[in-house]
Every structure is written in structure tokens, then in C-alpha cells.
Amino acid sequence: MDERHVVTCFLERNGQIMILRRSERVGTYQGKWAGVSGYMEEGRRPLEQAWTEIKEEVGLDGEDVELVREGRPLEVVDSELGRKWVVHPFRFRVLRPEKIRTDWEHTEAKWIAPGDIGQYETVPKLLEAWQRVAP
């Protein structure tokens, strides 16, 4: 089974987290809701990759967000894809929400209560990833 490491970043403000709907232009899980996420690039540490994805996907950098928590990696097996994802979850507090600009990877973004994740059609185990970084 193919194994891929990815990061998933939950952006929070005022007790809510941002979820993003994946566009038809991404490789997997089109139309599903997710956090800011991306493949781990060769030779990069998970936190480095998390900062890169936040910059690319929502246009925020180090002065706009702060790291709150790094969670234990979560294994997610997708037998349809024949792939095991190793998800490295992170939680960041957004300091400058007015600077958020989503890129082509998403068609929509919303702020929700973390307890409402289960009401959305998400990428596999998004709720479990959140629980690894939750308060």
C-alpha cells in the first residue's frame, strides 16, 4: 500500500475553526471539506510544511498566525485509493483574519464550531485529526 505523509492545519479564531471545500482541480477528495493541507515535500519537517501550506493556500505568514499545538500523527487508510495517509495535524490561531485569501485549491471557506465538523462531508478522519490538536 502506498504511504503518503501530509499536514493538516486547523486555523482558529474566536472559538471557531476554518474549513475549506476542496476544488475540482486538486488530486484527491474533490468537493470535500478539509483544513489547510498538503503533501510533505522530501526532506521537510512537518512544521515547515505546515507553514508553507498556510502561506500558499490562505496567504498568511508568521506574523498573521501563531502555532498553538502540534498533534500526534494519525494514520488514515483509504482502501479505494490503495493508500495510507499519515496525517500530521496542527492548530494555529489566526491573528489577522482580514488577510486570508484562498487559492485555487479551494472553492469555499467557512468558520464553524469544532463540534460541527461531523455535519460536513469531509476528507477522511478530519474530526479525529482535530481531536489530536483540540483544547
Describe the fold and architecture.
This protein has 135 residues and is mainly beta. The protein has a single domain (2-131), classed as Nucleoside Triphosphate Pyrophosphohydrolase (Alpha-Beta Complex). The chain is 14% helix and 41% strand. A hairpin with a 4-residue loop joins strand 6 and strand 7. The longest helix is centred in the middle third of the chain and has 13 residues, at 46-58.
Mean pLDDT: 96
The helix/strand class is: mainly beta
Q: How far apart lie the N and C ends?
A: 33 Å
Which geometry do the CA atoms define? globular
The CATH topology assignment is: Nucleoside Triphosphate Pyrophosphohydrolase
List low-pLDDT spans: none
Tally of helical runs? 2
**CATH architecture, please?**
Alpha-Beta Complex
Biggest sheet overview: 8 strands, mixed
What is the CATH class name?
Alpha Beta
Number of domains: 1
Q: What's the count of strands?
A: 8
Helix share, percent: 10-25%
Q: At the fourth CATH level, what is the homologous superfamily? A: Nucleoside Triphosphate Pyrophosphohydrolase
Q: Sketch the topology as an H/E string, one letter per element.
A: EEEEHEEEEH
For the CA atoms, what is the radius of gyration? 14 Å
Which percent range describes the beta-strand content?
35-45%
